[in-house]
Specification:
Pfam families: Tad. InterPro entries: Rv3654c-like, Tad_N. This is Pilus assembly protein TadG-related protein. Keywords: Membrane, Transmembrane, Transmembrane helix. Strand 1 and strand 2 form a beta hairpin. Strands 1-2-3 form a three-stranded antiparallel sheet. It contains two helices and three strands. It is an alpha+beta fold. The chain is rod-shaped.
Amino acid sequence: MAGESGSGGITGLAVIGVLCALLVAIAPIGGALSARQHLQGAADAAALAAADTASGRVAGSPCDAASGLAGALGVSLSDCGVDPSGRATVRVSATVLGVSIDASARAGPPELR
């Protein structure tokens, strides 16, 4: 028994070390998920801005409005289009942890069936 004295303390330190390493490995994933939600929100807002402009509620060009709002939210407008019915489709992108991610959204009047 004398040879095992203090082994509980070493085991405890090893467990704490493993937990800390696991936390450091998982933390960036949480940041990336948060950035993805921000990006999707920016896409939604840009699509709404483009649709409002296309409908005539706001003066200007729909894609210029979407681009301005996307820039204000810290993302880049990758693609923008408005169909003849006034539905806007946008795609925004950003770089998170060195990886480019994108999100898209549509807004406008409902489709008639």
